[in-house]
Design goal:
This protein is α+β, with helices and mostly antiparallel strands. Helices cover 46% and strands 11% of the residues.
């Protein structure tokens, strides 16, 4: 267990932000996440003070980058155009959201599944795939300020090799609908070496976008989501139905991403969270 003081960090808001599908709220002060083959619990122990259920080495090797902790989000927050009232309100509402740097293959498959689906439905399919093909993870016994995990056993997201054992029917049985073919093709591309996930990290944004959209079933929105959440390309600005609604209502149909070079994706998350969560609160 380690403690850190982290400004602009709200794990509960991150859990509700729709970026990741294996990030759960336990109670008012604790969340849990499964990523990179590890289980982590985060507990809020004071204002900007947090406990992490991992070693110093694991924190430095995995979680510091996963939570994008080296970025100054306070400066990003203060960079918002003073005349943009909507974005200022959205950022204030989403204060503490950070862009997660997720494992690229998991992000690719998860966002292929996400097309025209609700977050609960995506989460269910992702969990089914993990339980069927992923490696078992047994969380350690945890003491205060942590609590019991929500489950006794978790599963890592499968590697392309593990998932390559699944047939089209096997993938279909995971409840992914017409996306089953997209997943099988993506796994084949990665496992064959046609798509080298490690080499993609070195490509420019334009090059990476072209590679991703060349894949069967990967369009502009999915490619931008994979770039933003799997490769930490925070200049990307995915447009889904929520963002389209915002752009049409507040921005005359388009958002000038050139105002936020390298941070437009962070602004997108503020907008998405604000619109989605506040709309629920209004009902």
């Amino acid at each position: 267990m380690i403690y850190r003081t982290i400004p602009f960090f709200d794990p509960h808001k991150i859990a509700l932000s729709g970026q990741a599908f294996r990030f759960n709220i336990i109670d008012d002060t604790r969340v849990e996440v499964v990523a990179y083959g590890h289980y982590l619990q985060v507990a809020c122990v004071g204002e900007d003070d947090f406990a992490f259920s991992c070693s110093e080495k694991e924190f430095n090797d995995i979680w510091k980058d996963y939570f994008d902790l080296d970025r100054d989000y306070v400066s990003v927050f203060h960079s918002i155009d003073e005349d943009d009232e909507y974005l200022k309100d959205a950022a204030a509402f989403g204060y503490g959201i950070r862009i997660l740097k997720q494992e690229p293959f998991e992000t690719l498959i998860s966002y292929i599944i996400s097309q025209r689906r609700s977050i609960p439905a995506i989460t269910t399919s992702v969990e089914r795939i993990c339980e069927k093909y992923g490696k078992k993870i047994v969380p350690p016994r945890l003491k205060e300020p942590f609590t019991d995990p929500l489950k006794k056993t978790y599963y890592a997201f499968p590697t392309s090799s593990q998932l390559s054992r699944a047939s089209l029917q096997d993938i279909s049985d995971m409840g992914v609908g017409y996306r089953d073919r997209y997943i099988v093709e993506a796994v084949t591309d990665v496992e064959s070496g046609k798509i080298d996930m490690d080499s993609l990290r070195k490509k420019s944004d334009d090059e990476l976008f072209l590679v991703l959209t060349s894949m069967f079933g990967v369009g502009t929105k999915v490619a931008n989501c994979v770039m933003l959440f799997g490769f930490n390309r925070t200049g990307r600005f995915p447009v889904d139905v929520w963002i389209r609604r915002i752009l049409d209502k507040y921005y005359g149909g388009s958002f000038d991403t050139t105002l936020y070079p390298g941070t437009a994706g962070i602004m997108q998350q503020f907008m998405f969270f604000y619109e989605r969560i506040s709309s629920k609160a209004d009902k």
